[in-house]
Write a structure and sequence with these properties.
about 130 residues, 4 helices
Length: about 130
């Protein structure tokens, strides 16, 4: 039973602090909790490193484009449609389900959830 402080009629702060410390010590020293925490920390660090690498690659690509435009000012007239054609070809060949706006694919699961659970993926729109 907790000690009652007769002056104010509440539990003694010393006992509450020791309980809090025991609880926090369990939280800080639990191997199971640290495994899940480390997954989030590691994921955050990896995402940060990838974001920095992506930004550096984009800066380098912009530098190369400026060098190319310095030598040949009409390069964007050729590179833009060519890049679009290559992207569209890669998407069609290797990612066939990437077509459409995504709006019907986002609405379909909501409809399925109202009546029953559907095991099949949402229909692809053209």
């Amino acid at each position: 039973m907790p000690a009652i402080d007769t002056d104010i009629g509440r539990t003694a702060p010393r006992r509450i602090a020791s309980r809090r410390f025991r609880r926090s010590r369990h939280v800080w020293l639990s191997l199971r909790l640290w495994r899940s925490r480390s997954a989030f920390w590691l994921g955050g660090i990896v995402i940060g490193v990838v974001a920095v690498a992506f930004a550096l690659a984009a800066d380098y690509a912009q530098h190369l484009l400026h060098l190319l435009l310095g030598r040949w000012p009409y390069a964007t007239i050729v590179l833009t449609p060519l890049g679009f054609a290559v992207s569209a070809g890669l998407a069609r060949r290797y990612f066939p389900n990437s077509g459409g706006s995504g709006i019907p694919q986002a609405i379909a699961p909501r409809r399925d959830m109202r009546c029953c659970r559907s095991a099949s993926p949402p229909a692809r729109s053209a």
